[in-house]
Amino acid sequence: MIEFLKRLFNPEPSSVTARERLRLVLLSDHLALAPDVVESLKSDLIAVISKYVDVDADHCDVTFEQQESVVAMLANIPILGMKPTARAPRPAPPPEPPPIADPSPASASVSVSKSRRRRRRKASVNAAPAPG
Amino acid sequence: MHELREDPVPAAPPEGQRRGRCIVVTSGKGGVGKTTTTANVGVALASTGARVVLVDADVGLRNLDIVLGLEARVRHHVLDVLEGNAELDDALVSDKRVPTLKLLAASQTREKDDVDTAAFKGLIDKLRERFDYVLIDCPAGIEMGFQNAIVGADEAIIVCTPEVSAVRDADRVVGLLGERVTVKLIVNRLRPALVKRGKMLSVDDVNAILRLPLLGVVAEEPGVIVSTNKGEPIALDAASPTGEAYRKIAGRIVGTDTSTPEIPREASFFGKLFGGQR
Amino acid sequence: MSARRIVVTSGKGGVGKTTTTANLGAALALRGKRVVLVDADIGLRNLDLVLGLEKRIVFDIVEVVEGRCQLRQALIKDKRFGESLSILPAAQTRDKTAVTENQFAKVIDDLAEMCDYAIIDCPAGIEHGFRNAVAGAREAIVVTTPEVSAIRDADRVIGKLNERGLPMRLIINRIRPDMVRSGDMLSVDDVCEILSAELLGIVPDDEDVIDTTNRGEPIALKTDSRLAGIYEKIARRLEGDIVPFTDLSAPTFLSRLLGRKAG
């Protein structure tokens, strides 16, 4: 509701929308990926991570950012808690872990960069700093 | 073939097949508003309930998807269909805002020379059996992309701005279209204040040279840039005078509006002071 | 000494390639450089019209290529600039395939022996005409406007220029500072960032362009227009001077009241 009111009274300037749309469309132009492939990439990424940890699917944010000469994919995926299976390798698993009630959850951040031009198609992987 | 087409009372289409109208939107000069016109006329036509497909013929420099705000939903494109890599139905993108509107996008990573002209015409003919209107967004220039875009059309909308180079290019394109195609004119981005001060050609000036039936006149409006930024065609905006201009153009195409196109006039001083900038 | 060979291109049409070519050429000529402007838009020529030279065309580039006239005979001198500025017109009744890339490059090579700057006005699109226009060039100026479709096309063209190893710089045309301020138009920084390109010039939207084009007078000659100064600055940057960019962000009260774009 607050989100709605905010939108009603302070709509996003169209130049901001234009910037975001261009980023996405140019990324797919450069990668020769259809935009819907980019969309499925996002959801797959979230799905993979949620195999190991409980993520806040409503607040996942995957964006693409121009960083000098590369397009970087930045994923901000809030983690609500660990999945029991993720602890399986431990020899003696403790009983059920207490639910994490921390309102400011940890966050996984993945950053993958793709060379801007296809002729320099050498993907580099940036190690992302662990936030929080 | 010719006798068939010129028959004033066409024979009933076999097996419920129809033959929709195919209109190419062209100009010669780029940047005069072909894509904006295609998108908005398409939206306005489809809003009347007509089945409309918009075809982007600008292979390599496609933009119709972005103007319509459908860029994230394009899965396949014209060349995929022509080369048998996708079914036509899978390549048609629906527009949720206007259910009877579809988009067939151009390929962005290919060249115009990759398009087989005869196959493209075949595709257009197929679309005409399924839609009431096939609108083709032609690329700028008069090269291969232009030749492909006009091959399946028997009507053309020339988009021209009131500028000397646009008028000259439009005149050249009318010549290239030849007798086969029925040509009508939209004068785009008219700035009435400049016309009044003698700094811009008037609609009459433009049409004294082109001598074409006038389909409509659209005034320059910053709202068009905003609508492109957002991917929301201005014809969807019920309150916009520019949107209204496109709806009237659609009415004239359908034949429900027989009024003479209005020439936009200069906004009043107070209008300018309070409502001029968006 | 051989001339600089610069192609002015954009992908999208109607963003101001021809206007930029004409006015940049005029500004360089006013600075005493010998400039030849080449119209590569065979079939849809307009450079002659923008400069008001359309009545003086005798020969065109296709006739030069086909050996039906000498290169010098086809050049039209713009007398307002003394000996400094001339154009090589495109053919109007032929199509772009009438000239090959090699033939085009040869013409530019020959021109380069006669002048300081050969500036090529590229047609819209990325077809044959584009390939011809870039064939003879050693550097490129990409013109764009702050609109999504123009930027997407510019991006595509920059990719093509990169493939050919042509260095490029960007001119952002028809900026409307009032719309940038209200958030309705992408800013100069937005465009440069999206295209990751080096900036050569920023040209505000100005109705004087339509007016001067109607008359066939380059705006660079109209000293009372703010655009004359802007093209002069771009010319100086091209020559290697470091010239600060005009601040388009400061509106005057009056311009705001009247809804005019500030310079």
Description:
- The complex is a heterotrimer of chains A (132), B (278) and C (263).
- With 132 residues, chain A is α+β, with helices and mostly antiparallel strands.
- Chain A is built from 3 helices and 5 strands, in the order H-H-H-E-E-E-E-E.
- Chain A has helices spanning 2-9, 14-31, 35-50; strands at 53-55, 61-67, 70-82, 106-115, 124-125.
- Chain B has helices at residues 2-6, 34-47, 64-68, 78-82, 88-91, 117-130, 144-150, 164-177, 192-196, 203-210, 222-230, 241-254, 269-275, and strands at 21-26, 52-56, 92-95, 98-104, 133-137, 155-160, 182-190, 214-219.
- In chain B, strands 3-4-2-5-1-6-7-8 form an 8-stranded mixed beta sheet, sandwiched between helices.
- The longest helix of chain B is centred in the first third of the chain and has 14 residues, at 34-47.
- Mean pLDDT of chain B is 90; it is low at 1-13.
- Chain C has helices spanning 17-30, 47-50, 61-65, 71-74, 101-112, 128-135, 148-163, 177-181, 188-195, 208-215, 226-238, 253-258, and strands spanning 4-9, 35-39, 76-77, 85-88, 117-121, 139-144, 168-175, 199-204.
- In chain C, strand 6 (139-144), helix 7 (148-163) and strand 7 (168-175) form a beta-alpha-beta unit.
- In chain C, helix 1 packs across helix 11 (226-238) and helix 5 runs parallel beside helix 6 (128-135).
- The termini of chain C are far apart.
- Chains in contact: A-B, A-C, B-C.
- Chains B and C meet through helix 8 and helix 11 of B and helix 7 and helix 10 of C.
Shape of chain B: globular
Strand order of the largest sheet of chain B: 3-4-2-5-1-6-7-8
Low-pLDDT stretches of chain B are 1-13
Given helix and strand content, the structural type of chain C is alpha/beta
What proportion of the residues of chain C form beta strands (DSSP E)?
15-25%
Could you name the ranges of chain C where pLDDT drops below 50 across 5 or more consecutive residues?
259-263
Which bin fits the share of residues in helices of chain C? Answer: 25-40%
SSE class of chain B: alpha/beta
Average per-residue pLDDT of chain C, rounded, comes to 93
Work out the helicity level of chain B.
25-40%
Q: Write down how many β-strands of chain C occur, each being a DSSP E stretch of 2 or more residues.
A: 8
Gap from first CA to last CA of chain B: 52 Å
Q: DSSP strand (E) fraction of chain B?
A: 15-25%
CA-based gyration radius of chain C: 18 Å
Radius of gyration of chain B: 18 Å
Please, what is the average pLDDT of chain B?
90
The string of secondary-structure elements of chain C, in order, is EHEHHHEEHEHEHEHHEHHH
- How many helix segments of chain C? 12
Instruction: Count the beta strands of chain B.
Output: 8
What oligomeric state is this? heterotrimer
Mind describing the biggest β-sheet of chain C?
A: 8 strands, mixed
